[in-house]
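Every protein is a chain of amino acids, and every chain bends into a shape of its own. The protein below has been through that process, and both of its lines are reproduced in full.
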Amino acid sequence: MSSLLFVQILNGLQLGVLLFLIAAGLTLVFGVMDLINLAHGVQYMLGAYLAVTFYGLTGSFLASLVLALVATLAFALALELLVFRQLYARDHLDHVMATFGIILFVDQGVKLVWGAAPLSLPVPELFSGSVTLMGGLLYPVWRLVIIGSGLAVAVGLYVLVGHTRVGMLVRAGATNAPLVSALGVNINRLFMLVFGFGAMLAGFAGVMIAPILSVEPGMGDAILILAFVVIVIGGIGSIRGAFVAALMIGLVDTLGRSFAVDVLRLFMGPSPARTVGPALASMLIYVLMAIVLTLRPAGLFPAAGR
């Protein structure tokens, strides 16, 4: 039992760091630009698809990772220039409608270019093995690489946002963008930087998960919902909040789905537990969100000024 618990904790951490990679960019875009971007999940999807394509052309996972991030950034900057820049002065309903349209457009474009059939990306040969955990259980090395990569990005973001001039401008923009603009900062350039960087983080998450999950149209839609839950719990515009909330969501969701039935068997019969357990497990993250918002309506670590 302890071995299974340890494995599920690792799986929860893996989900958590992936959610953080997506939610970090999303919370910066929402916090700095006051933009509700429902299309953020398509960057995650495009990162995975582009990595598959570039791997087929180069045969190198590292090359496909770099090229996929560059292509994801280029696509995001084009979207920012052509679409999102026209939305900054509009209300949130316009943001929702426009970005939902982008989701439909990109999903159909992916089907036209790559087809509707799921694709896959091989695990890099260097990380294709498994390690032995307690109790003799094997755990894939690549999942540990995902956890390590996500934690490394979190440390890098902490340094970038908290201890650099660019980070100072981002924090100031999240607090009061009009004032930052009045002080002579090119706010459009700052918005473009934040938007492109957030898209690259989502694309990186897509590339890292592609060797584990099927790469298919619409794969970013479900995880985007979890990412929004993360930024609501963590606090809009807060990288620290996104990190803590993402790990909480990853662990609660994974452990809940793994052990809800076993826990319920302590209070009810096996048959009702098997019926109620999966339904309860799927609700746990939203129950957690409701509890956090009841106690802290602005989230756990809201950005200054919110």
In short: The longest strand covers residues 130-132. Residues 32-126+136-217 form one domain. The chain has a mean pLDDT of 85. Residues 14 and 143 are 7 Å apart (CA to CA).
